[in-house]
From TrEMBL:
Gene3D superfamilies: 2-enoyl-CoA Hydratase, Chain A, domain 1, Lyase 2-enoyl-coa Hydratase, Chain A, domain 2. Belongs to the enoyl-CoA hydratase/isomerase family. This is Crotonase/enoyl-CoA hydratase family protein. It comes from Microbaculum marinisediminis. GO terms for biological process: fatty acid beta-oxidation. Keywords: Lyase. It holds the Pfam family ECH_1. The keyword Lyase applies. One of its GO terms (molecular function) is lyase activity. The keyword Lyase applies. SUPFAM superfamilies: ClpP/crotonase. It comes from the Bacteria.
């Protein structure tokens, strides 16, 4: 594992890595060293790691931007600071491996932006979601205005930001902020189970899912179909795909079953 700031803790567990926001006394508020630490973690991930579980220590996932770090910035510095967050969160969203996040307590501001950059979100019942930027006199800056509307629509995001509306875990599940909703304390185990399932997929399929699906979803008309066809052909051409298809046809692979 690369050297990380004290506000992050990481360990490898087989073919998955467990990454924790580890600043519980500050409710895992995201200061610059933490955000840059995320970049170090995701760019220097050991080769054998095929999926990551991201969680937060203490009573909350993350209180968002560390407001004590907000200082007088001129226009250019302000833009650069937001671009830095965007670039780090983009490395997560368009990285090498899928990331499953475990959400509990406050998932607010930049904490929600971080959660939305992960690929699968497991919420515990204690989770709640807010975008208090309006109340704080600032704006989202970690890609939230691009990612959040894709999950819940621009109208709901505007409501959250304008009125300070907070969604609880059940509402968050209904509107699409989380993929899974589990009891308090059960999130990490659920996320590890999902991460292990993800890690057992063919790596090129996972890579194509991460890189191609969001781009195809945004592509205009026929461009999406063509990109999909290219990706399908690339994935199928791999020996691993051929082996997996043979395994199924020769009754060695599991069927699709409901839980
Ligand atoms: C913080 C932060 C923070 C807590 N920056 N220090 N985010 C917000 O507007 C959310 C602000 N935080 C809160 O609303 C609450 O702290 C929580 C609901 C998250 C948690 O409440 P609670 O009662 O569990 O903890 P607390 O007593 O409020 O906070 C404990 C300590 O953490 C306290 O410090 P202490 O030195 O007095 O012990 C708090 O000051 C500190 N703390 N949250 C700095 N956010 C790229 S742009 C993104 C823009 C945004 O993210 S805006 C949203 C910012």
């Amino acid at each position: 594992m690369p050297d990380l700031p004290g506000s992050l803790a990481a360990e490898v567990d087989g073919d998955i890595a467990l990454l924790r926001l580890a600043r519980p006394n500050k409710r895992n508020a995201l200061d610059d060293p933490t955000v840059l630490g995320l970049e170090i973690f995701f760019t220097r991930l050991p080769e054998g790691v095929k999926a990551v579980v991201l969680s937060g220590e203490g009573t909350h996932f993350s209180a968002g931007l560390d407001l004590s770090e907000l200082r007088e910035r001129d226009l250019a510095e302000g833009i650069e600071h937001s671009r830095m967050w965007q670039s780090v969160f983009d490395k997560i969203a368009f990285g090498r491996v899928p990331v499953v996040s475990v959400l509990h307590g406050a998932v607010v501001g930049g904490g929600l932006e971080l959660a939305c950059a992960t690929h699968i979100r497991v919420a515990e019942r204690s989770a709640y979601y807010g975008l208090p930027e309006g109340q704080r006199g600032i704006f989202v800056g970690g890609g939230g205005s691009v990612r959040v509307p894709k999950l819940i629509g621009a109208a709901r995001m505007m409501d959250m930001m304008l009125t300070g509306r907070v969604y609880d875990a059940a509402e968050g599940q209904t509107i699409g902020l989380s993929h899974y909703l589990v009891d308090d304390g059960a999130g990490l185990d659920k996320a590890k189970t999902l991460a292990r399932a993800i890690a057992s997929n063919a790596p090129l399929s996972n890579y194509a899912i991460l890189q191609a699906v969001p781009r195809i979803a945004e592509a205009a008309g026929g461009n999406g179909y063509f990109t999909e066809a290219l990706m399908a052909a690339v994935a199928q051409s791999q020996d691993e795909a051929k082996q997996r298809l043979r395994d199924f046809l020769e009754k060695r692979a599991p069927k699709v079953e409901k839980e």
